[in-house]
Design a protein that fits this description.
Elements (H helix, E strand, L loop, with lengths): L2 E10 L2 E8 L4 E4 L16 H10 L9 E3 L9
Antiparallel strand pairs: 1-2, 1-4, 2-3
């Protein structure tokens, strides 16, 4: 199933570790891009399950981590 929307990400050096929503309303975690196909065995049924896996697999190093999300998630004035 294809990725519909990136919900959040952590960018560490050249690694972009994301959590995403798929076209079938399931979720995926990893180095993802919109439109990328995710195999069924790498999909999560719930956002909670995907988020827990995302946090558990975040790249951890000594340097600070930059977090971000798409413009659609930024607060509006």
């Amino acid at each position: 199933m294809r990725i519909r929307k990136i919900l959040g990400r952590v960018v560490k050096e050249h690694i972009n570790h994301s959590v995403a929503k798929l076209e079938n309303n399931r979720y995926a975690v990893g180095q993802l891009t919109i439109g990328q196909v995710v195999e069924i065995d790498a999909q999560f049924d719930t956002l909670e399950a995907a988020f827990k896996h995302w946090v558990a697999t975040l790249p951890m190093h000594d340097k600070p981590v930059r977090t971000g999300c798409g413009d659609e998630h930024m607060a509006q004035p």
